[in-house]
Structures are given as structure tokens and as C-alpha cells.
Amino acid sequence: MRRLCKGNVAVIKGAILAGCRAFYGYPITPASEITEAAALYLPQVGGTFLQAESEVAAINMVYGAAAAGVRVMSASSGPGLSLMQEGISYLAGAELPCVIVDVMRGGPGLGNIAPEQSDYFATVKGGGHGNYRNFVLAPASVQEMAELTMLAFELADKYRNPAIVLADGFVGQMMESLDLEFREAIVPEKPWSVKGTPETRQNLVSSIYLEPDDLEQHQRRMEAKYIRAQQSETLFEQYETDDAELLLVGFGIVSRVLRSAVEQARKQGWKVGLFRPITLWPYPSKELASIVAGAESVLVVELSNGQMLEDVQLAVGSNKPVAFYGRVGGNVPSVEEILEQIEKQMSVRV
Amino acid sequence: MDTVMEGEALEMADETTSSPTEQHAGSNGYEVVHSKSPVFYDIYERKSELKHQTHYCPGCGHGVAHKLIAEAIEDLGLQDKTIFVSPVGCSVFAYYYFDVGNVQVAHGRAPAAATGLKRACPEKLVLAYQGDGDLAAIGTAEIIHAANRGEKITVFFVNNAIYGMTGGQMAPTTLVGQKSTTSPWGRRPANEGFPLHMSELLSTLEAPVYIERVALSDNKNIMRARRAIRKALENQRDNLGFSFVEILSPCPTIWGKDPVDARRWVAEQMIPSFPLNVFRDRKLELPPDSAPPQRPVSEVLEIRKEGVRGLSAPHPHGFEQLAIKLAGFGGQGVLLLGQLLAEMGMREGLEVSWLPSYGPEMRSGSAHCHVCLSTQRIGSPLVSRPQVLVAMSEIALRKFAPQVAPEGLILYSGDKLPEDLALPTANVISVPASRIADKLGSAKATNIVMLGAMLAETNCLTRESALKVLEAKVKDCALLEIDRLALAAGWEFVNHQAYAGAVAQADGFAY
After folding, report:
1. How far is CA B111 from CA B243, B391, B471, in A?
2. CB-nearest partner of B342 from A62, A175, A208
3. Which residue, A292, B76, B236, B244, has most beta carbons within 10 Å?
4. In whole angstroms, what is the distance from residue A47 CA to residue B301 CA?
5. Strand B125-131 and strand B154-159: pairing?
């Protein structure tokens, strides 16, 4: 049944439903309610919650728990994510599944606590050292904060890889109705884990492959699973794209503003549609390319200087103009502002 | 020298791969026993061409420390239960030797990873093995906090006063005057400070149950180390708490000494700077724990079937989408008022969103929130052109009134509008809400007076659902009664009092 719930709290509700029973975190605005909800709920359902001394420690506690095979997560915002990047690289290298939620705020440095989408590169393109990928899922509502957290656990286990839920300050802080159904979580067997049992005694969790050939082979195997994921795990949403002449592209909170803008623009007779990637990695490039085929131009909107823009440009190619409109510093464009941009694009075209 | 070179002892033991234990009759009647604990693998596959050698240098202390740990695990019968956390440093490859569950972790983070492992596997034996750079430099925070939490793990800290694996750089435990590749004139306290005494430092904490410093300098001290290692593992087996053994250990290669001189250097140079001692050996007395009771997931997460339902007869809302902005000071209940509206809307079967201003300003800072009520999926939850503005302060009124949509409504909590403020396109109602709330007995109810006024004026949601939501949210009976009266008073004020600048619309809601 529906309940009014904050986005950050919905993350933990989804996580617990997904069978997550360990959370290690460190407070940071605007992600702290995730840690607080974990502190409140997990110990009541037989789970472990610990406030770590730093994000560095938190992500390594996640590493330890993941090595033991439990569904485990952490959550933070940009500055904390930066501190976790070392650990995420180790988790990816050791092929350990875990979920990390990044409720993005303004950067660089301390920046501010208002929403930005400027951790796209840091999560989608890597962030830590070495050849690896993170799954990156971008919720745009409270309901999706729960559902995409649940999906993140499934992908993490299926591919033995970190999965990041990339939200922003608004989606984390807002309240909407949340409709969750109880069902028993199915956590897969993890025969590779180290649990202190006779069956797992021979197991080793490590990211070291000192011989070049061994490390190359390890990376080739990781690469193969990333290709598999790219072929089968992309998610996106489209709205009014069938006859769209101008295709808007945005994720997370921006996609909500764009949706309203499309509604308004359609009332004015402008043929505008919306493409919203839900998985930022793997990016739904093929789907975008096929939807954009019917449009004449593209407008990418982000709370950044243009980070996802590069993936859109790669998917669209050089045949169609791709314009960009970005707000930074914690400013979120209003619907009116986007309508102005749409008008500008439509008139450029005419 | 009459002691066995322990780093080599491990290698010598390796030669007996066909059988773990072989005995040879010595020429003088003694029996020489070469044994290898079954906790070690038979063959070390570190490098395929050197299967019977360890990767440690001759005379290295790691071999002895490994052997003592392996024998202790064997004697305690805990091989199947052991999880060995290996660090970055020369002992990074400990998993090539120990036939136990192995987890290799990032530089300095072994205590954090061990924390995650131990809490996932509380019945198992989790031990972390770290060098001085790992534990006392890059991992200082992790070891102090793991110790301070009293993690029920065992940490072996191998201190050889130098970075071995990276080729002889200064460690936090490098002695005053000791040369290294990064302290070429010797460690100068004026530049690099003094050696860090981790055992003493950790002994200032309450939680650890056992802290001892031992040395691999001679047989007598090695036997003391053997006892300390055992005790530290037994403590964990017995669930007593955090145990820490610092092991002063020779590094002949980097020190530029032969194995015999290296041991002498441990005795003559290291021990005076790092005195051997039992710093802590006691039972931990904890205050009574207040762990919460266990409850079913569906109950904890409030996703029971009998959750909130919409009204049986949906209220004719008269709008597709209503965008509301509520603004004032922190502490006035502005955010709560928005939440009440969202909750009411949800109970009336609408799509709702509530988006707050958030941040470090709590009381007396500015606070506002955006609420959308809609019969359709809500696009932007940001309200940039509010159809209704509830302004709880003059500052909020001045700031947000210009945003209000044409023909929109402004509800202002105040006796009358500031005279210099012209709002030609909006309907404005001033409600002396705080005076009304004061009269009812609590200024806290000011926001509920405004709620009553808003419902009376807009008819966007019902008083019935407002009462239901208040009953669900307000636990204090006296306050709930005041809120009921406040809701009614706000309603009455709008329906029966004269007010400036607007006339109630006869056809209900039309904004």
C-alpha cells in the first residue's frame, strides 16, 4: 500500500526487501537519511549497521562483508564518493558485489549541498584506478529510489560487480508515495565467498594478479562480462517520442522537469519528446540511436557542464545536431526555462 | 649462532613436501624435528619455478611470524574457521602460505575489511596481518577505530621500522637517526617527528582486551611471541574482544645486514625504542546493551497489507494539478505543513510530491517546500509558478509572491499585507494565524490555522482527511486537540471574517 516516504528512506526500504543485511556509512548531506534509516531499520531485522570513521573505512567494511557473501551497501554524496573510489576499484578488481548510493550535490571540492549531476564521470566512466565499470542506475522518483536499489543488488550479484545508484539531492530529499510489496528476497548462493567454513577454505578474494598475463586474462574476463551487461541490462524510458522532431535527453530529477516541459510544449503544438536513460552504465546507446532516428535534433539537459552529453553524442553520431543546456551550482532549471530552450531549438531548426 | 634462522626455517620445512613431518636421528643422539603445520600449504606457488621457497628473504621475520600463527591456528583446531586478511606490503602474499580462507585488501584497510568480515561471520576467526607502513601510516584511522569499537578480531602488527616491499622508505616506526631511502640523513625528529608507538597509543583506548609487544630477536623472545599470538587468537575464539600483538621483526635485506646482525639490531636498537610489554590484558566490562527487538521485515518497513488506503468516495478535487509553495522560517512548521498536504492528497487518491529546501539551517533560517497534487503522474516536483503560496513570514511573502501564477492565491500569515507590497494579479488573504493559534493555547498550531484557511478557500482537499492525517501524525493528545481547533478556526476565519483583497469563489476551486 502507498505510504508517503522520503527518497533517501526508500533506498533502505528497497535494500532490506532485496535482502541487504549490512550497511556501513558515514554522514553527509544530502545523503544522511539513508544512513539514518539503515541505523533504524537494519538492527531490527537481524542486520548490521555501523557508522564508520570515514568513507574510506566504510567502503572497506563493505569490501569485507561482500567478501563474506552478504548483501551489503553504503551511501554518500560527492565528497564521500571521492574517498570511496579507491575501495570501489578494489571491489571491482576482486569482483565483489555491493551497492553504493551517491546522492549527488554540488562540486568540486566542498561545493554545496544542492543538487548537481556532476558525478556522472566519476561513476559512469570510472573514478578509481584501473579498467573497470560500475553499474550506474539513475532514479527519478521515490518509488525508483527503492526499486532501482533492489535492481542494483540483483545486477551486482549477477555480475559480481559494484552497482551505483546515482541520485541527486532533490530525489533524495523529496517525499512521494511509495508502494512496496513484501516478498522474500532471493539472495543467490556465492560459492566463491570466504565465510570461515570448510567449503570456502580454499577461496581467495583478491585483486592482485602480479604476472602480466594473469592480469590481462583477469581483465579480459571482466571485459566479457561488461559486454554481456551492455547487451542485456540497459533500461530507459521514452515519452512522446513517436513523432518528436526535437528529442530531449535527461536523467534523474532533470527528466522530471523535461517531462513537464514536453507536456507544455505539446500544448503549444511543438513536437517534442523525451528520452530518459535509467541505466547510465550500461548506457542505452542503441535504443537512443534508434529513437533519435525519427527526430531532427537533440537537446541534452543536465545539472553539469555536459557529462552525459558525451554519451549522447557517441550514440547519436554526427548526423544530427546535439545541443546542450546545463545548470550547475545547485540550480535546477524550471519548466519555463526549458520551454525557452525548446523554443530556441525549434526556431533554430526552422 | 645457536638459533635456527626462522625465515629459513620455513623454507627448510618446505623441503619436506612429501610428508609434513619427518624426523631425522641426529648424530649426537638428539632428534631434529622439521615440521610444517598443516595450516600451511604443502607447496608455495608464488612463482612456478620456485615452488619450495617462500618469497621472503633469508632471515626475514615474516617467516617466523607466519609459522607461529599457523601453529597456533592448528593447535586451536580453527583452520576451517579462519579468515586471514592480508595487507599491502611484503606480507601481501600471505595467502600463498596459509591454507585458510583468504581475503586480500587495500593498503591500510585491513581492520575495516576485517570489521565487515567479522560482523558478517561473528562465529569465525578473523585475523588481520599488517606491516608498519600499512597499519601505522596509511591505516592509522582504521586501526584506532577498529580497536576503539572493540571489534572482536585479532591484529598482528609486524613492525620492522622500514618499508620493505617498496624498497626501503621511511616508516612511521623508523628509529631516530635510522637511514632510509626517504630519510637519507637518518630520521630527523625536527623534520619527520618521532617513531610512532602503536601499542602504547592503542593502550589509551578502553575497548581492547589484549595488547602486547613482542620481538623476534632471539629464541626466548620468539617463545614469548608464540604465547602472545596464541593468546590473541584464543581471546577471539572466546569472544573476548579486540586483541593486538605488535611483533618487532628483522628486515635484513633492507637494513643491509646479514640475518644474525639483523636480529642483534632488533635486540639492541629496536627494543630500547619499542620496549616489550603486556600493555593490556583484561576482561572488557560493557554496560548493558540496548539492542532493539527483532521484528518481521514487513512490520519494520511498514508495508503491511492494511496500510493507508484512499477514501472510498474520492473527493472531486476540481483540478488536474495543483502546485503549492509553502514558505517561512525554520521552526514554523512550514515543511510539516507541506507534508500534511502531501499525505492528505495521497489518502485522497492523488499523486503527490513534497520537495523541501534542505540544509544546515534549521531554526530561524528560511524554510520552504514545494507540494504538487495531481490526478496524473507528476513531472517536475519543483514549483516555479505556484498556484497557491502559503507565506508564513513577510520575508517569505516578499520573496515568493512575485512567482505566483496569474489568478493564483496567496495566503499570508499576518494581520495585514505590508502596505508597499502591490500584488495586482493574485488573490491575497491575510490570516492572523499566530494570534489565533496563541489564543488556542499554542503558537505551534499557527501552521494548522493556515491549513484550515487554505482548505476553506481552495476546497482542494477535505477537512476530513486533514483530521485523519493529524490524528495519525500528532501523538500528543493535548496538542492534537489544539490542532483540531486551529484547523476549524482557520476554516472559520476564511468563511466568516472580512479579509483584504479577495472574495471567496463561489464555485469552489478555480485557480
Report:
1. 12, 52, 48
2. A175
3. B244
4. 13
5. parallel
CATH assignment at residue A174: 3.40.50.970
Cβ pairs A/B, distance under 8 A: 242
Please say which residue of A181, A210, A232 terminates a domain: A232
- C-alpha cell recorded at residue A65: 562483508
Taking every pair of Cα atoms in chain B, the longest distance, rounded to a whole number of angstroms, is 118
With CA atoms as reference, the chain B residue closest to A260 would be B379
Identify the closest residue of chain A to B87 by CA–CA distance: A206
User: Do residues A218 and A256 both lie within one domain?
Assistant: no
Site of grid cell 545486477 = A155
Containing H/E element for B198?
helix B198-202
- The total number of structural domains that make up chain A: 2
Supply the range of the domain harboring residue A74: 2-232
Do residues A221 and A335 both lie within one domain? Answer: no
pLDDT tens digits for A127-172?
999 999 999 999 999 999 999 999 999 999 999 999 999 999 999 9
* ipTM for the whole predicted complex goes beyond 0.85: yes
Q: Do A310 and A224 share a structural domain?
A: no
For chain B, which domains are there?
6-281 (3.40.50.970), 316-496 (3.40.920.10)
Would you call A182 and B124 a contact, using CB atoms and an 8 Å cutoff?
no
Residues A200, A256, single domain; the answer is no
Task: Centre a 10 Å sphere on the Cβ of residue B23 and count the other Cβ atoms it contains.
Answer: 10
pLDDT recorded at residue B53: 76
Domain identity same for A186 and A118: yes
Taking CA–CA distances from B78, the nearest residue in chain A reads A196
Looking up residue A270, the CATH number of its domain turns out to be 3.40.50.920
Cα–Cα distance, B509 to B511 (Å, whole number): 6
* A163 touches A152 (CB < 8 A): yes
Contacts of B389 (CB under 8 A, 6+ apart): B324, B325, B326, B327, B397, B400, B401, B403, B404, B408, B409, B410, B411, B426
Same domain, A130 and A155: yes
Q: How far apart are the C-alpha atoms of A75 and A64, rounded to whole Å?
A: 16
Residue of A218, A219, A255, A221 whose CA lies nearest to A236: A255
- B-contacting residues of A 107-146, CB under 8 Å? 113-114
Interface test mutation site (partner A, options B44, B76, B105, max chain A beta carbons within 10 A): B105
Residue A38: partners with Cβ closer than 8 Å, 6 or more residues away: A12, A15, A23, A25, A49, A75
Which residues does B91 contact at the CB level (< 8 Å), separation at least 6? B62, B129, B130, B131, B158
If asked whether residues A243 and A215 sit together in one domain, one would say no
Query: What is the nearest CA distance from B102 to chain A, expressed in angstroms?
Result: 5
Average pLDDT over residues B278-297: 94
Among A232, A265, A289, give the residue marking a domain's end. A232
